[in-house]
Design brief:
Low-confidence stretches: none
Bound molecules: zinc ion
Distance between the termini: 39 Å
Number of strands: 12
Largest sheet: 5 strands, antiparallel
Mean pLDDT: 89
């Protein structure tokens, strides 16, 4: 007799930002080791690599062009079916926030509450329509961002995995995600030129972007900062004064890994 083979269920989901339909499966104990290793590491980069590895193993998608909110959402969904949808968190209470105004009563209130949130019920993607405020969908890959004087950048989503501070250079990140620069021909403005990244060395692009005024790049900056994000709605109730606390939390993956 041989031991039975375990069947792995599969699930499908529509990613909230890209609207792509994808299928995923739970990770196994063997794959959980990837997360365990990353959990004991101090490096955010190691943690991020582990998350991407799990997603690529367990779904039919490659992670390099995922919007960060889609990436987080998908990882949470995989975690929920593999381990648990309920995540325990601690909630720190500022002294002035707890229910009673009387000093002695507050003294009895705990300063830290333990609570939990559900990946399936309390996590959502918010601010998804921001994308359409600062960019439009390109005919090919990625999004088109209008700068100024009809100069546009076509860029793709990319999950920035190197959180090394000195490498988080804005122009480098933009170049990393760049597909093409679109602009009117100087001699014949009716003629629109599409210059692809492969024909544009980094130095040339860097000097080009640095020649703009800060206000010309506002749309581009908004593309990065005013964007969809993955948020958990966390509630906690003080057992002493019965006051309920509620907060919106981003950066949820740090609770898991
Ligand atoms: Zn209290």
């Amino acid at each position: 007799m041989k031991l039975p083979k375990r069947d792995v269920p599969s699930f499908s989901i529509k990613l909230p930002v890209s609207n792509r339909e994808i299928t995923y499966r739970p990770y196994t104990i063997k794959e959980e080791k990837i997360l365990d290793m990353a959990q004991v590491s101090d490096s955010d980069n190691d943690k991020f690599k582990a998350i991407k590895q799990i997603i690529e193993n367990c779904s039919d998608i490659t992670t390099d062009k995922l919007h960060p909110a889609d990436l987080q959402f998908l990882f949470l969904k995989i975690y929920a079916v593999s381990d648990t949808p309920n995540i325990n968190v601690t909630y720190n209470i500022a002294a002035e926030d707890c229910g009673s105004t009387e000093d002695d009563k507050y003294a009895a209130c705990p300063k830290v509450l333990t609570t939990s949130f559900s990946i399936d019920k309390d996590v959502s993607i918010v601010n998804t329509d921001a994308l359409d405020k600062n960019s439009i969908k390109a005919k090919g890959d990625g999004r088109i961002i209008d700068l100024v004087d009809n100069i546009k950048l076509q860029i793709d989503f990319k999950t920035v995995d190197d959180t090394n501070a000195e490498k988080l250079d804005f122009i480098k990140i933009v170049y990393d995600m760049l597909i093409s620069v679109i602009f009117p021909d100087a001699d014949d403005p009716e003629n629109i030129v599409v210059l692809e990244k492969k024909d544009m060395p980094y130095k040339e692009f860097s000097e080009f972007l640095e020649s703009f005024q800060p206000k010309d790049l506002q749309n581009l900056k908004d593309f990065f900062t005013d964007t969809a994000r993955c948020e958990a709605n966390i509630k906690a109730k003080c057992p002493k004064c019965k006051k309920t606390f509620e907060t919106k939390q981003t950066g949820i993956l740090s609770f898991l890994i």
